[in-house]
Amino acid sequence: MQETESIDEYILQHIDAESDYLKALYRDTHVKLLRPRMASGHLQGRMLKMFVEMIRPRQILEIGTYSGYSALCLAEGLQAGGMLHTFEINDEQEDFTRPWLENSPFTDKIRFYIGDALELVPDLGITFDLAFIDGDKRKYIEYYEMTLAHLSDGGYIIADNTLWDGHVLEQPRNTDAQTIGIKAFNDLLAGDERVEKVILPLRDGLTIIRKK
Ligand SMILES: C[S@@+](CC[C@H](N)C(=O)[O-])C[C@H]1O[C@@H](n2cnc3c(N)ncnc32)[C@H](O)[C@@H]1O
């Protein structure tokens, strides 16, 4: 464990720093919100930005805004004219998150929606080039099918938490709907010929999916 912590520290000292704004958001998330571990942090945030710079999407979808940390990193990587559409189902989150998004340097590149992405996204009529799936672990298959239907050919999906702290190796209890959901998603993807996929063992597992 000691060794893992040292490597994590080493990595953070040798990659791009997060901005003071993101540092402050991360701190505020931990002070004011329940379940702050849900927020992306320094490493994952820099990686999301890098993915956006590599893929150069015009339209990005995010399912699960929470405090807005990953949204700001995705928006930071967007080229001029690009737009991030980020969805949060919990309306109690709005008072915290909206000011953080609107006071950021990337506010013009972000549309923040309160509501269920599964209901709202199909009505937008937008074709996305990149999607970040980070909502309710029980619904990953539903998010995936909905997103795939609104994704450009050659577009990418990044799904977070797909190793679920190693629980994917276990036989889940009937009541452990989140582990059951993630395992079902991983099993579906493994045999899905519509896409290419790799799993990165970063943080809690990130699956990178490319629509053929
Ligand atoms: C893990 S947190 C997101 C963390 C954030 N993406 C980050 O990396 O900083 C998951 C969020 O998804 C939201 N959520 C769950 N189901 C959703 C849905 N169907 N549509 C939109 N948001 C949803 C939850 O309320 C929660 O705030």
From TrEMBL:
Superkingdom: Bacteria
Matching entries from PROSITE patterns are given as: SAM_OMT_I
What Gene Ontology terms for biological process does this UniProt record contain?
Answer: methylation
One Pfam family, short name please?
Answer: Methyltransf_3
InterPro entries of this UniProt entry? Answer: Cation-dep_OMT (IPR050362), SAM-dependent_MTases_sf (IPR029063), SAM_O-MeTrfase (IPR002935)
MF annotations from Gene Ontology: O-methyltransferase activity; S-adenosylmethionine-dependent methyltransferase activity
Question: Which terms are listed as keywords in the entry?
Answer: Methyltransferase, S-adenosyl-L-methionine, Transferase
Q: By its UniProt entry, which PANTHER family does this protein fall under?
A: CAFFEOYL-COA O-METHYLTRANSFERASE 3-RELATED (PTHR10509:SF14), O-METHYLTRANSFERASE-RELATED (PTHR10509)
| Record-given protein name | O-methyltransferase
